[in-house]
Amino acid sequence: MRSANMHALHRRPPANGHTGPMTTPTQRRYEPWMRLALAEATAAEATGDVPIGAVILDPTGTVIATGRNTREAEGDPTGHAEIVAIRTAARTLHERATQADPTSPASWRLTDCTLVVTLEPCTMCAGAIVLSRLARVVFGAWDPKAGAAGSLYDVLRDPRLNHNPEVVAGVLEQECADALDRFFEGRRQK
Ligand SMILES: [Zn+2]
Known about the structure:
The chain has 6 helices and 5 strands; from the N terminus they run H-H-E-E-H-H-E-H-E-E-H.
C-alpha cells in the first residue's frame, strides 16, 4: 500500500539520474504530449483511480492511443495507463495496416512509437513496453517505491533483454507529482 507520506516521494530521482532543476531541450520537446497524458490522469480520478495517464505517438508524432488507470473502473489489476494505451495503439496500427491491405497479418509491434506516461512505469508495464518494442518511453514523476525505469529496477535498460527503449525522464515532473500528491492527500482527508 501507499504510505501516508506521499510528499516529495515522486520528486526524488535515483542517484544515477540525470534530471535536476534544469529542463533539457529533449524534455521540453515532449511537454505538449505530457500535458495530454496529464489530462488522461485527471480523468482517471472520476472513477476513484489513481491519476496516471499515458499517450502513444506514432513516428510522425500523431497520438494513436491514450490510456489511464482503470484498475477501479474495470476491477482489473492490470489496468495501468501504459497497458491500456499499448493495447489501443496496437489495435490502431493493425486497423491502419488492414485498411491499406486487408490481407495484412496482425502486427503487434509498436516499432518507432513513443509512450508518454505521467509516472515511471512499474515492473509489469516496463515488461509490456519491452515486449511491444516501443522505441522510446517518456515519463514525468519518479516512483521510488515501484518504478522499473531506474528507481527500484531498470527493466527498460537491462542489456540482458532483447530490446531496450530510449528513456526520457522528468518531463513536467512537478505537475505529474502534484497530481498524485493531491489525489492521495484528498483520500487521507476522507
Ligand atoms: Zn504499471
